[in-house]
Here is the input.
Amino acid sequence: MSITLDGIALPEDLIWTDEFDWSPRQQKQSYTLTGALVVELGIKQKGRSMTLVGGEQAAWIERSVLLSLYAKLDSASVMTLTLNDARVFSVVFSADSRPIDAALIIDYSTPASTDWYSLTLKLLQV
Here is the structure.
């Protein structure tokens, strides 16, 4: 099974590098004037970062696919991300200045639509 973002096929060997860096648990502690501890606990409903990383050795995409991803940046709509283990997430591009980071595997002055790029996608679960 492959990874898809709104129907755009992505390399199945992209790695979700920050999968376990997020906790849905939110906690705040404070003390009252009498010294009693007050603990507020809540569960985050959305906002999990999802960074999908390839590299120079794996998870390459063709320029034509990269251009399709860049076209999605113009839209603020929610996208569907399906991972290769069949988990499905509603996501948007991260507010990061570079939500799509790509580099040519072999530098060409005029890359063709079939030339390969390494890829990092920065998404936010909504």
About this structure: The longest strand covers residues 116-125. DSSP finds one helix and eleven strands in the chain.
